[in-house]
Amino acid sequence: MPNQKILYITTEMYPYQEDTNLAAVVNKMALKMHQEGNDVRVFMPRFGQISERKFQLHEVIRLSGMNIIINDLDQPLIIKVASLPGERLQVYFIDNEEYFKRKQYYFDDEGVAFEDNDERAIFFARGVIETIKKLNWVPDVIHLNGWMSSFVPIYLKTYYKSDTYFKDAKIVLSLYNEKDAALAGNVGEKLQFDNISDLEALKKPSFESFVIESMNYVDEVVKGDEFLNGDLDKGFNETATSKSEYLDVDSISKLY
User: Fold this and answer.
1) pLDDT for residue 86
2) Where is the Starch synthase catalytic domain (predicted)?
3) Is the CB of residue 143 less than 8 Å from the CB of residue 7?
4) Rounded mean pLDDT of 47-55?
């Protein structure tokens, strides 16, 4: 079914990241839907490892310049854009010096998780939502990939619940076996600042607990990896949300 507006929100995508299933799957899905005549946009963080020169990223001045308040601090939102190499498929990058300039993704060189991973996820989620609204582009399908993207449906169904902009969009969540880590113990206070509370994930906040939580806020849950680990598999099996086993790229279009 071409002519759908499909938004991919992801933490990884080939060729900006290589050697992960998540990055490869998102690339294949986005390209397939684009080539079938859909209006596809991709949003992801502009991690420091992504070369602006190599991939020809440039700032979109009309979309940049907003401030997002995280934990009572104003953080400037910078939006960069590039076309997927060799394709006319636009990829938007959420950037901020404080959160995304560092070369590592979620862990320092000693393997210790960054203390502000929670703030980075909140900034990313709100940055995507606000930028989509500023684009005046209303997606039919929002497909989430990667743990940071799990904050998006939580925000849409709580903080933005009275906003009708996304009311008709269907939300799909793909699950992947990502390396887990604890989030800051005071993440609840930061979410409370946006009037978000009573989340099960806050009892033991982690990358994975928020992914499991977000299953309650989407229309469809899909396995992004064929076999899921431990608690993620348990969450998938127990969720009351409509769900699909692992789907190949061709089956994804039928789901949409």
Assistant:
1) 87
2) 5-194
3) yes
4) 95
